[in-house]
Specification:
- It contains no helices and seven strands.
- The protein has about 90 residues and is mainly beta.
Length: about 90
Amino acid sequence: MVTFFDGKPEEQASLVYDDIVTTKDGSRATWRLTPDSERGYYLVCTYEKQAKPVTQKLSPKLTSCVVEYGKPAEKSKLPPVRSIECR
């Protein structure tokens, strides 16, 4: 699972995507970011079997992030993340 935060993740200010499009293989979600945001943005990746999530502070120059999702597997409720691209 991929979550974007406005500020440090422990502050729990998770962001909802600004746009989502269904594709033939899944979906594509876009988050629009404000460059040089005072609080900064963070990306957190959580894995089903990993106890500790992976956290990355994003560059203050970014204006958007796009996540490509595949279709969920039968046993999983979450769609697999195919790619993450931030610009």
